[in-house]
Amino acid sequence: MIWQNFAVQNCPPSIYYLPDFITKEEECAIMQAVDKTPRPRWTQLSNRRLINYGGVPHPKGMIAEDIPVWLHHYVERINQLNVYAEGIKANHVLVNEYLPGQGIMPHLDGPLFFPTITTISCGSHTVLEYYEQTEDANGQSGSGSLVRQHKTSVLLEPRSLLIVKDDMYHKYLHSIAEREEDTIDARVANLSMISNAHAGDVLRRDKRISLTIRHVPKTSKMKIKIF
């Protein structure tokens, strides 16, 4: 699969959207494995819950942990795409669980990660919103007042793969709105790449599991096996 052929147009560089990257059977297996995860392994936040596999990223370095066997297939598939620089392999998987009505505030993933992020979506669609953040021209210089302007949206279907790099990683904040349904409009940059959604459609969310597979450059030589 040549991922460069799946570039999303009408947005800054670079977003790539690959529909049906995994099969329905693989999607089901992922969701079953996540459902079996012991509760203490989860980190509960106010708007979602998550699991770090491979370690917990930290500015001083991530203490490496083994990634569970059931994830190896998907990590290897990402590595085989060669989306990172030569010699760099994925070593971290962030599992997020979003229930209908849950989301995440606009943010940058930042310098803890190699600036290429890959995300597999399971169970439900979602809409990823991107924002440009600039200093308020009407505010006083140095006041720290910032303005966020919507730049683009990307519809993520179940079983799809999203690849984000370049300016879209470094410069544009991304978020998921806290709502139970999404109205598809012309701001969705990859709408022409979606076979079963059109402008004006209202899509109700279900439980969504995402696997964000990435590379953490700074790791500790100490390795912990927890499985």
Account of the protein in words:
The structure is a single chain. With 227 residues, the protein is mainly beta. The chain has a single domain, classed as Alpha-ketoglutarate-dependent dioxygenase AlkB-like (Jelly Rolls, Sandwich), CATH 2.60.120.590. The chain contains three helices and 15 strands. The protein has helices at 24-35, 69-81, 167-170, and strands at 15-18, 43-44, 49-53, 62-65, 92-98, 104-107, 116-122, 126-135, 146-156, 161-165, 172-176, 181-183, 202-204, 208-214, 219-224. The strands form four sheets. Strands 1-10-7-14-5-3-2 form a seven-stranded antiparallel beta sheet. A four-stranded antiparallel beta sheet has the order 6-11-8-9. The chain starts with 14 loop residues before the first strand and ends with a strand. The model has no long low-confidence stretch (mean pLDDT 93). Residues 89-217 form the Fe2OG dioxygenase domain. One of its GO terms (molecular function) is dioxygenase activity. One of its GO terms (cellular component) is nucleus. Keywords: Dioxygenase, Iron, Metal-binding, Nucleus, Oxidoreductase.
